[in-house]
Amino acid sequence: MKNVVASPDCSQNMQPVVLEFRNVSFSYGIAPVLENVSFTIRKGDMTCIVGPNGGGKTTILKLALGLIQPQQGEINLLGSSPPTNVTRVGYSPQYIHYDPRFPMTVIDIVLTGRLGNALKIGYSKADKETAKYALEQVGLLEKMQVPFGSLSGGQRQRVLLARALACEPELLLLDEPTSNVDAASEVHFQEILERMKQHVTLVLVTHDLAFVSGLTTSVLCVNRRVLSHSTGELSEQVLREMYGNDIKLVKHDPMHRR
Q1: Angle at Cα 19 formed by Cα 231 and Cα 136, nearest 5°?
Q2: Which overall architecture, per CATH, does domain 17-96+169-257 show?
Q3: Is 100 exposed, middle or buried (0-12, 13-18, 19+ CB in 10 A)?
Q4: How far is CA 1 from CA 31, 63, 73, 100, 242, in A?
Q5: What is the pLDDT of residues 71-81, one digit of tens each?
Q6: Does the model's pTM come out above 0.85?
Q7: Neighbours of 243 (CB within 10 A)
Q8: Could you give the CA distance from residue 5 to residue 19 in angstroms, rounded to a whole number?
Q9: Of 171, 158, 199, 134, nearest to 60 (Cα)?
Q10: Which DSSP string corresponds to the chain?
Q11: pLDDT single digits (tens) 22-40
Q12: 255 CB contacts (<8 Å, ≥6 apart)?
C-alpha cells in the first residue's frame, strides 16, 4: 500500500504544522504495527483516524504523546520531538482505570488535567476556574460534585473530554470518544466537537464512519501503513481495501440521525 502525503509546501494550507510523522515505523516485539508512516496535520485541521482493530490507530496517538518511541523515523509535535511539548496536548483515552470505591467527583477528574508535568500541592483558583469552564463547555457543570462512577457512559466520555480541555491544549487527541455511548449521547458529543474545532486542532480515532462523514474533512486510513483521504474519497472500494472484503456498509439518513 502506497503512502499518500500532503506536501508541506501546499499553497492551499499554509497553517503551521501541529503534528507530523516522517517515515515512522514501530513494532511490539517482532510484530510490525506501523511501517514507514508519513502524514502532516496542520493548525485548525480536524482529522479522523480509522482502520481495523490492531491496525495501529492507538499506537499513532501513543507515539504522538511520547509514551512510546519509534524504531525508525521522526515525529514533530508542535515544533519539537515528543514528549517535549506534551503539556500543550489534551488527550482523552477510550477508557480510564479507576477504583469505583474511591470517591472521586467529576471536578476531581477534570482537575487532573491541570497537573501537567509539574508536581503540585493543591490546585490554584485559576486551576479550579479553568476546570469549571471545561465542564461548562461539555455541558456538565451542574454535575461537578457528583461521583464520577455514578455517571452514564456518555457523561463519563464528556468528563474525560473536559479533563483534556482543562490543560488548554493546542492539539486535542481523542481515542474512540463515542464508544459505548447511545445515539443521543453521540449526537451531543458531535455538537460539542463542532464547536471546539473552531479553536483547537482535533485528531480522533473512531470506528464510526458515519460519525466521520458528518464531522471531518480529512481521514487517515491506518492498517500498518497510512493513506490520507478527504471524507468524500471514502468509497466502498477504499474501505474494502482497508478492512477486507467482509465489510458491510449501511447508509444512514442524516435527518434520521438527528
Answers
A1: 75
A2: 3-Layer(aba) Sandwich (3.40)
A3: exposed
A4: 18, 21, 18, 45, 10
A5: 999 999 999 99
A6: no
A7: 20
A8: 13
A9: 171
A10: ---B---TT-TT--PPEEEEEEEEEEEETTEEEEEEEEEEEETT-EEEEE--TTSSHHHHHHHHHTSS--SEEEEEETTB-TTTTGGGEEEE-S-----TTS--BHHHHHHGGG-TTS--SS--HHHHHHHHHHHHHTT-GGGTTSBGGGS-HHHHHHHHHHHHHTT--SEEEEESTTTT--HHHHHHHHHHHHHHTTTSEEEEE-S-HHHHHTT-SEEEEEESEEEEEEGGG--HHHHHHHH-TT----PPPHHHH-
A11: 999 999 988 899 999 999 9
A12: none
Query: In this structure, what C-alpha cell is assigned to residue 63?
Result: 507515539
C-alpha cell at 244: 477486507
